[in-house]
């Protein structure tokens, strides 16, 4: 094992130890299923259904993700553990939709067929870029679930509030692991890692875009429930840079370099804010996951 792999393995071991000790939860025992509010709004159910749909591409996230890092012990074992945790997210949300009476078995079966008719492909193709993609995506997903946790509470749905709470804790833990790996990678090769970060920021899209059935109309209906550009900058972009110890100017310089590299190539379809480019579909994004 190289020194780099050794460090990443150590990060995985501390992540896993903490997960086993503090973060395990049980779909059957820990969710207050009797506290579902059947009178809660359809919009609340629609949001839960959309998040559930994004989480359902798990087979694609897992197979693509683990194959990319199969020779890196810490990263590959993380993917395996990650897959177990993520598998509970869609399962629990599906149970919620059924037990709340918001959806029938038939409706969910129909949705599943539509979901599996499409396939999620890797948005980036190197382990380092995918690690950073995972970091951004998990943080954005965390922000969305926290927002919806409050919303479920406002609608008096204690069951859904508890579900979002457990899921949000998982998502932020996933984000922390990816962040710790990126920190190690920055120590190893700062310029190369910054260039990859710039590339991922500039091309970032949530995983449901283009594959979840009726994604655009769902997003429209969820409008105020999503994450817009400002929220993304304040709650996702800035906190990640701060945690990694990367200055704003340093990041902007890397972004400019990445843009220069791309000039002459394909015309950019997204727009920039002070050098930060966010794909348009990020607005009001639904969560998750690849490295969901
Ligand atoms: Fe998830
Ligand atoms: Fe996650």
What does this structure look like?
The chain is 67% helix and 2% strand. It is mainly alpha-helical. The protein has one domain: Ribonucleotide Reductase, subunit A. It has helices spanning 3-23, 42-55, 58-68, 73-99, 105-116, 127-154, 158-188, 190-202, 215-221, 229-244, 248-262, and strands at 271-273, 276-278. Mean pLDDT is 87; it is low at 267-292. The two termini are 27 Å apart. A two-stranded antiparallel sheet has the order 1-2. Helix 1 runs antiparallel to helix 7 (158-188) and helix 7 runs antiparallel to helix 8 (190-202). One fe (ii) ion binds at residues 55, 86, 89, 167, 171, 288-289, 292. Its cofactor is Fe(2+). Belongs to the fatty acid desaturase type 2 family.
Please work out how many helical segments DSSP would assign: 11
Q: Alpha-carbon distance between the termini?
A: 27 Å
The largest β sheet comes out as: 2 strands, antiparallel
DSSP summary, beta strand count: 2
Bound molecule kinds, no repeats? fe (ii) ion
> Remind me, CATH topology?
Ribonucleotide Reductase, subunit A
Order of helices and strands: HHHHHHHHHHHEE
């Amino acid at each position: 094992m190289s020194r780099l792999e050794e460090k990443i393995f150590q990060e995985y071991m501390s992540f896993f130890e903490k997960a086993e000790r503090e973060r395990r939860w049980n779909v059957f025992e820990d969710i207050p299923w009797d506290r579902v509010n059947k009178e809660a709004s359809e919009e609340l159910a629609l949001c839960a259904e959309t998040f559930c749909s994004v989480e359902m591409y798990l087979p694609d996230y897992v197979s693509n993700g683990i194959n990319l890092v199969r020779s890196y012990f810490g990263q590959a074992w993380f993917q395996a553990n990650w897959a177990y945790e993520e598998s509970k997210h869609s399962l629990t949300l599906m149970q919620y939709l059924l037990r709340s009476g918001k959806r029938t078995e038939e409706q969910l079966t129909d949705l599943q067929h539509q979901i599996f008719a499409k396939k999620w492909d890797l948005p980036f193709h190197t382990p380092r870029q995918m690690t950073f993609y995972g970091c951004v995506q998990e943080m954005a997903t965390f922000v969305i679930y926290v927002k919806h946790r409050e919303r479920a509470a406002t609608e008096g749905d204690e069951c859904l509030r508890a579900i979002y709470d457990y899921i949000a804790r998982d998502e932020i833990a996933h984000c922390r692991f990816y962040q710790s790996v990126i920190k190690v990678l920055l120590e190893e090769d700062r310029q190369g890692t910054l260039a990859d970060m710039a590339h991922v920021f500039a091309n970032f899209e949530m995983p449901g875009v283009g594959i979840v059935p009726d994604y655009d109309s769902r997003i429209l209906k969820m409008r105020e429930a999503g994450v817009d550009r400002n929220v993304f900058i304040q709650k996702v972009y800035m906190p990640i840079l701060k945690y990694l110890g990367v200055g704003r100017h340093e990041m902007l310089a890397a972004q400019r370099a990445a843009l220069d590299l791309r000039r002459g190539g394909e015309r950019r379809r997204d727009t920039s804010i002070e050098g930060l480019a966010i794909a348009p579909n990020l607005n009001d994004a639904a969560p998750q996951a690849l490295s969901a």
